[in-house]
Amino acid sequence: MRIDVLTLFPEMFAGVFGSSILGKAQDKGIVSLNTLNFRDFANNKHNTVDDTPYGGGGGMVLKAEPIFGAVEHVLERQAEDGEEARKPRIILMCPQGRPFTQEIARELSEESHLIFICGHYEGYDERIREYLVTDELSVGDYVLTGGELPAMVVTDAVVRLLPGVLGNEQSAVTDSFSDGLLEYPHYTRPAEFRGWKVPDALLSGHHAEIEKWRRQQSLERTMARRPELLEQAELTEKERTWLRQAREAAASPSGD
Predict the structure, then answer these.
(1) For the chain, which has fewer Cβ within 10 Å, the N-terminal or C-terminal residue?
(2) 189 is catalytic
């Protein structure tokens, strides 16, 4: 996979892209992570990339020219490097986008080329949205100073799903949200710490019992913390019955 990030602050990505899992993924040749300062594609002597909005109003708006120029440069450079022509997903990080989820991360991990656009102003010239980007993504219902941190979040979530990135491929399979539920609790040695013991099921060595315990814990944790996820989760009839009974018990007055 190739990932290009268009940003006014490429230095922000040096530590993130060069460390830990992302750094190792690059060392293995699984992914190529690149940054490009789109100020270099401004078409004026002052290299400005923003301007006041037509119609008035506060804030500045990111101009279309430098963004289009930067994307076209990435595609030209890809061709010059002899890489196979790949139609990229061009992703605008903005509060108005689709809420980013594990399902979207999995979807993007199947692509071969992603381009992220990180803004730093009041908004984008609408022609960027209309004629250039393929996706708009948001990492939450709040506003940040720019799209750099969200782009890092999405990149991390996507790259860790690529084959060969994680030492244990099963880790990505059992993550929270991978099956629509929150992940079950984890324990490690010692079996008892300050009087707190590891659940007996995990010490039993009985794989069927362990899987049963983990599934039950995922259901209970999801019901308690993110009950809305259960509406879309793939559940057995027995699990749906248990959830219905658990909800009825929780709603009943004490002692009923």
Answers:
(1) C
(2) no
